[in-house]
Amino acid sequence: MLFWVTGVIAYVIAVFHRQSLGVASLEAAARLGIGPSGLSLLAMLQLLFYAGMQVPVGVLVDRLGSKRMLVIGAAVMTCGELVFAFSSGLLPGAAGRALIGCGDAMTFISVIRLVSLHFPARRNPVMVQLTGIIGQLGALASAVPLIHSLNAYGWTPTFLGAAGLGVAAVVLLLAVLRDSRPAGAAGQAPGLRAAWAEPGTRLGMWTHAATQCSAAAFLLLWGYPFLVQAQGLDPSTAGVLLSALTLCGMACGPVLGYLAGRFPFHRSWLVLTVIGTTAGAWTAVLAWPGRAPLWLLAVLVVALSANGPGSMIGFDYARTFNPADRIGAASGIVNGGGFVASMSVIALVGVALDLHGGTGLDAFRWAFAVQYPFWLLGVVQVLRYRTITRRLLAARAS
């Protein structure tokens, strides 16, 4: 438990670093001399480095262990914040955010591996859900406190303070965490090929992709303009709905984690239920004549709140169907698949809005319709790999 708490603290600090640009966007534009496209470039570059590092980090965490990777990740993010603190142009600012994306990529998978090695299988789903929930404290810490610091102390002292949190994470990890590598793991070749060949890994990847993409696109970029510009809500009401999505997700996580641990053979039904309720809620909102009533938008938010916790079941599949010496590689595949799906939905919604001439209600209806192929493909692949894994388990049992 002590090792898990230490890893979670490092993850909270990583989420703080990840979210720090969002609340400093106006100050960043003024200091770096960039406009909205430049800000978008900074955010996308950070996310692209995060995505590109998933599989390599998964392989490395199996070879080096969680402690080393968490320390390296915290140190890299600290360097990123230092570069960002002294940046005065687009290129150094982009370099800082790229470093933060790389270090961030090393953190969650390393903590997931700690959970897999140190907790019994039945408790694993709940602990993974709790890891994700507690990590959201980093997002909260990057909001009001960071805004206050920027207003009170300015750019460089604020991000030097953020770098100080990274130093604290490195010291804590070195002092407390003790890593254990699975027996026989030393000297083995990376398990990436074996992890990909395991049908359970691909079941987890498609689970993560199909359940995460809608809420991720809604929270990261398109939810606020949809609620304000298309649905006509005032900004404060839209903010309440977005906050409610996060809070409902935090409440939903332990429930889904308990059910996944209590009924492991029926995890796919939980996944299909999350996809079905999400698609149903979106269908009701998009098909509503005119603007949807507030109660229906609240139903949509509640349905979306299960997406994040539902996607965590993908990591449970990775743990179930892979030995301990390739948990990192399998988790990297799962996480990378979900990220690719989320970024694809975000990009396609933007393309569809451009094609339909703006951000009006009709344009958003067509734009959010791009989600249906992702849900359909996800359901087909979940059912496909569920059948394959069940046959494989039956063959192994016999």
Key traits:
globular; 20 helices; mainly alpha; 398 residues
| Helix coverage percent | over 70%
What percent strand?
Answer: under 5%
Q: For this entry, what is the oligomeric state of its chains?
A: single chain
Query: Over all CA atoms, what is the radius of gyration?
Result: 21 Å
**H-E string:** HHHHHHHHHHHHHHHHHHHH
What structural category do the secondary elements indicate? mainly alpha
| Beta strands, count | 0
Overall average residue pLDDT:
86
Q: Please give the count of helices.
A: 20
Stretches where pLDDT falls below 50 for ≥5 residues?
Answer: 183-189
Question: What topology emerges from the helices and strands here?
Answer:
Elements: H1 2-23, H2 25-32, H3 36-52, H4 54-64, H5 66-85, H6 90-105, H7 107-118, H8 124-141, H9 144-153, H10 155-176, H11 192-197, H12 199-230, H13 235-262, H14 267-287, H15 294-305, H16 307-311, H17 313-321, H18 327-355, H19 361-368, H20 371-397
Helix pairs in contact: 1-5, 1-6, 1-7, 1-8, 1-10, 3-6, 4-5, 4-18, 5-6, 5-7, 5-10, 7-8, 7-18, 8-13, 9-10, 12-13, 12-14, 12-17, 12-18, 12-20, 13-15, 14-15, 14-20, 17-18, 18-19
